[in-house]
Specification:
It is built from three helices and 19 strands. The chain is mostly beta strands. It has a single domain, classed as glycosyl hydrolase (family 31) (Immunoglobulin-like, Sandwich). Strands 2-3-4-5-19-16-15-13 form an eight-stranded antiparallel sheet. A six-stranded antiparallel sheet has the order 1-11-12-18-17-14. Strands 6-7-8-9-10 form a five-stranded antiparallel sheet, with no helix packed on it.
Length: about 280
């Protein structure tokens, strides 16, 4: 049954490619290296890879002639000093190495694989699809390991802590009296963590448009995240400890200041207290 479902999903995907405007990034045609940034010219896109820290890498794709000059409305991170890394070209791939990560950028088709220093594969683009564009829509397809679990994605009404096998939408919605079947809620946190073999990585997708996270809901070969419009702009954060991933995520997006104790008083909602006698009962304690 699972095989039939996968074949049906693949057929729908194939039809969208043939009759839509679906295109993949293609192969690497050339590259340039400047400071902490490597820019790859691809057949149908551009890819910029930024080495921010030994364990934090930014990947940015566009199918336009130029990257957007609009600033991020979420990322406040500023790189204080250049992170040392090495870059070399081989026949079939480029290799980027930091003190903690090794990146393989395959030339044809362009695919990204990320390893730790012991050459254990942490994360990789899905072999067949990778990053793709469908008119304005953009998606990044990632390999799904059998023993990989996902957590995160912020406030959701669905009851599962483990996000595998579900699809989630990021679109701020004021939805009173929601149930566990309602996905969009009051805030969007497009960040999740993958856990496998007691090692943790995080991915933060920086895109302001309506976005989606399919955590293996369609099949067991890959998961994907994407948006209706905009660029494929995401940050990969490696731990391997979970607390480090979370700490570095807040380094990217900012940390809330601890309010003074006098600011933390009793909190009382004005929602749905009826009749007046109930309100008075609560007020009187």
């Amino acid at each position: 049954m699972e095989k039939l479902f996968f074949l049906f999903s693949f057929f729908i995907f194939f039809i969208s490619i043939v009759f839509g405007k679906y295109e993949f990034v293609g192969k690497v045609k050339s590259y340039s290296l400047e400071s902490n940034r490597i820019e790859f010219q691809l057949t149908n896109a551009k890819l910029n890879i930024y080495i921010l820290e030994n364990n934090i890498i930014r990947f940015r794709y566009t199918n336009q002639n130029e990257f957007s000059k609009a600033p991020s409305y979420a990322v406040i991170y500023k790189q204080n000093e250049k992170t040392n890394f090495s870059f070399k070209e081989e026949k079939e791939k480029y290799i980027i190495s930091t003190n903690e990560l090794i990146l393989h950028i395959r030339k044809e088709p362009c695919r990204v694989s990320i390893f730790d220093k012991e050459m254990n594969l942490i994360n990789a683009d899905e072999e067949s699809f990778g990053v793709s564009f469908d008119a304005d829509e953009v998606r990044c397809h990632k390999k799904l390991f059998n023993d990989e679990k996902f957590i995160g994605l912020g406030e959701k009404s669905k009851e599962n802590l483990i996000k595998n096998g579900e699809q989630y939408t990021m679109w701020n919605t004021d939805f009173p009296a929601y149930t566990s079947t309602k996905d969009e809620l009051y805030m969007s946190i497009p960040f999740f963590m993958g856990v496998r073999n007691y090692k943790v990585y995080g991915i933060y997708f920086d895109n302001t448009h309506k976005s989606y996270f399919n955590m293996g809901a369609s099949n067991n070969r890959f998961y994907w995240f994407g948006a209706d419009r905009g660029e494929m702009d995401y940050y990969f954060i490696y731990g391997p400890e979970m607390k480090r991933v979370i700490s570095d995520f807040t380094k990217l997006t900012g940390r809330m200041e601890l309010p003074p104790m006098w600011a933390l008083g009793y909190q009382q909602s004005r929602w749905s207290y009826y009749p007046e006698s109930k309100v008075r009962e609560i007020a009187e304690g």
